[in-house]
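Model it.
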Amino acid sequence: MSELALPLGVKYLDGPRFRAAFIAGAQAIINDRVYLNKINVFPVPDADTGTNMASTVQAVAAELSESPALGDVVSGAANAALMGSRGNSGIIFAQFLYGLSRSLKDEKLASPKKFVLAAREGVEHVYESLIHPVEGTILTVMRAWSNALEKVVATTDDFHVLLNKSYEVAEKALIDTPLQLEVLAKAGVVDSGAKGFVDFLKGVLDFIKSGNLRDIPRFEKPEEQEELHHFSGEDEIPHRYCTEVLVSNSNIDFVEVKRKAESFGDSVVVAGSPQRLRLHVHTNNPADLFDWLRDKGELSSMKAEDMLRQFEVSHKRKHAIALVTDSACDLPADIIAKHQINVIPFTVNFGENSYLDKVTITPEKFYSLLEQAPVHPSTAQPSPAMVSNQLSFLKTHYDSVVTVHISSQLSGIFNLALQAINTQEGDDIFAIDSKQLSVSQGLIVYRLALAIEAGKSFSEIKSLADEYVKKTKVFVDVATLKYMVRGGRVSPMKGLVAKLLNLKPIISLDEDGKGVAYGKSFSRKGNMEKIKKLVSDYAYQAKVWNYAIVHAQALDRAKLYAADLEKALGKPPAYIQEISPVVGAHNGLGVVGIGIMSE
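Modeled.
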């Protein structure tokens, strides 16, 4: 027998053995992830438990230390799990590892008795992470396994015997989960999270019986993914957003977090420590949740996936063509909902705190922070994986996909969409560079939505998109250059001169979608008169299809524009609304934008 193989009669667990065993268990979950997704009916039947658990253990396996000391490897595993966990079961598994690491962090190796005590602490931490632990789930199987470990260790000091007999108890507890949870019995399945944990134990056991440390594979860290939920049947979605966030540099009470988080929704799981914790909540109000969390620590690694929209995509789509845009597009929520428009959010950062544009931060809260925060906010485009995953998901449920993005001269998301499309087979996905932003981008998306609703074909939509882009214009009344100076888009010297002269610039976009100065005045009234003339001149050249107005905390001024333009154009604006945070970060408070499209 090779000296690197695990011999019968294992009396201790060290760093290399834990690492090898964990990777074997992780591989077992990954191999079974499709089946785990298939049987996922609790807490929400969204068919993603296998994907989430596989992603979690893969993230841990990729970061495992090769230290000989058990404590180093387990502590590293716990930290990697906290950073990379996904979904209810993934975060529960992360909390188990955190509890395990609390007992073993200073140990070079562990005897069976020491490991059993650590496993018990791991399970206790799992129960502490939940407000309302539900039996018949992964919790039940973890506890049954831990209890069996304590009984068996009294009769043996051999890890082979210990893990083999406790596995048998865990397997029996898994089989019994439908007896404890009615939703499982009704569906005729066992709990998917519990099955994933039993898979993990089986992988560990198989390795201990016949594994060789030389054969352990290396794992790559999984790519960042959008959490895509695949609901089945006529399931109800009581809370729209599956929300996760990492809170760091905090010192808060777990009980406080759990109780407060429950007031925002359900499926609350809190993992980690008061210094770094991961929170999972299903909620209808992610922005309010994140507003509360903002004072508790630095927010990062966030997700707020729209389960309702994903359910509609899977089971209640209205049309054969999917319409996608990004959060720089300013359209009212009721239009987005009515036409099932899919929105990919940008990220807005205030110092170390990150937010998902329009999802975990509202325009109202953003503009409040813009005035108060000591640092100017920065923005970031979505990750390539997020864009690719979203388009791929939609392609599986629609005949074709049209995605419309902010001008490629202002952001790279259009190019990300092109890259994602190049990895797809077929020619049924089309990306549009709107060469616009905010309200004018919104008008293009809105008119395409109406064309899709009218039954236009995919080829017709592609032609219309190019036509609509050419027919659209935006005029932006900038109240002050202060925010552009703070954001680095205008030099301090130019900003100072503009302030001294009381200059009020008018910004637009050229035919390539690049920002250009369209004029300036020495007063807000002067700007308004010039923009009204620009709009009237544009309307004189071609019949107006529609126009809309957006603003940043300047509703009164937006209404003045609306009243005057209605007289000039003979119709009210399609809508008036606040500018999205990702656009407002660069233009600041007081700005008003008018988008107009000809017939």
